[in-house]
Amino acid sequence: MREAAYKEIVSGAKDILYGNLKIGYATWAKENYKYISPSRHHYPHQWFWDSCFHAIIASHFDLDLAKNEIRNLLKGQRADGFIPHIIFWRREIAWREILRSLESYPTLFPRTSQLIQPPVIAQGVEAIYQKDHDSAFLHEMLPKLVAFYNWLYFNRDPDKDGLISIIAPYESGLDQSPSYDPVFGMYDSSVVVPTLVGRLVTFRNMVTNYNLERILSADYFNVEDVLVNSIYLKNLQVLTKLLHEIDCEETARHFYYLYTKGKESLIKKCYDKKEAFFFDLYGKDEKAAKVKTIKGLMPLILDLPEAIAKDLVKKHLSNKDEFDLPYPIPSVAANEPAFIPDYKTVFREPVLWRGPTWISTNWFIVKGLKEHGFNEEAEKIVERSLALVQKSGFREYFNPFSGEGYGAKNFSWSTLVVDMIASK
Ligand code: GLC
């Protein structure tokens, strides 16, 4: 049964990833490009964390495609190490494009954005390396990854506590998450305000010329985000391992140090003992943004003290009032006032990450649960994720009660279920 489901899912994943390929020549970059778009029409450009997931999925059936996905993403890397969250290989004129342009500078129609996304590229490279142990590939990739993670550390950790700051909600990949409502001083469940205010932040960043020092010292959006930092720290750990593989011991030590320092700060500063949950910190004075979202479970991907991991699972993940819904894991706890399980739009733009279930966050949590020995809980999420795509197809996100699919169709990263089943 599992074998049959796996075959079917892999064949569905192949159709989607190959079907979403974009191939061409970008005159502005004087480069050929070839990448998998998240969804052909809805999301036509190359997105950072999407591409890392695509590489992980493709590593199961087409290593060349997987390697190409990472290589194409790295074509957008700047000389200082920064990698943008979107590369606009080919412009498409549409309302949504103008909004996306506001995530960037210096022109209204930029070629790359000036924002980051959850830095999961080391895990992307690791997934590929685990399949063919091609050390030439590691030698090619690691200097670029080292430059990128160093860029994050040197430019995004103003208080040097080992946790990096994001400067816009879009940087977490969880665009309108209610975890940012307290940052904007709003506590009701309106969906209009977060959508508008989020864009206002990116607009303000644009007029500040994307000068990080000025943005961070102005303190209007300086968030030490639990999801971004859990992924950052996990990837520093993975990078350390990969560097050992090619005998770069000194650099490996440097990243291992950053990893331990960051993990210590995450537990010390973001973990609320009374609530037994992790919350984002915002502003220079590091106030906790106390909204229970999927982010608070993300530290499970790290080697946390077992007591903390157990509390996250027993008190929250397995709590029917919060995250244990028929199709878990909702992006917001069901008992939060901001929780909206279905599809909402503002000015015809969908409002994202305020309740529905997404496959990418399930993928992370499954990995974390397994690492902490919560195999039954992990298995349940794998089964429910599979049930979701079998019921509604590879949609962008899903209703956590009914499993109804929303947003883009043939959405590439929802095929991460392939990796979830393969590593069962
Ligand atoms: C949405 C998601 C973001 C993703 C992008 C492309 O903006 O919130 O995380 O990278 O779509 O799929």
UniProtKB/TrEMBL annotation:
It comes from the Bacteria. GO terms for molecular function: Glc3Man9GlcNAc2 oligosaccharide glucosidase activity. Residues 43-414 form the Mannosylglycerate hydrolase MGH1-like glycoside hydrolase domain. Pfam families: MGH1-like_GH. GO terms for biological process: oligosaccharide metabolic process; protein N-linked glycosylation. Keywords: Glycosidase, Hydrolase. InterPro entries: 6-hairpin_glycosidase_sf, 6hp_glycosidase-like_sf, Glycoside_hydrolase_63, MGH1-like_GH. Belongs to the glycosyl hydrolase 63 family. This is Mannosylglycerate hydrolase MGH1-like glycoside hydrolase domain-containing protein. The lineage of its organism: Bacteria, Candidatus Woykeibacteriota.
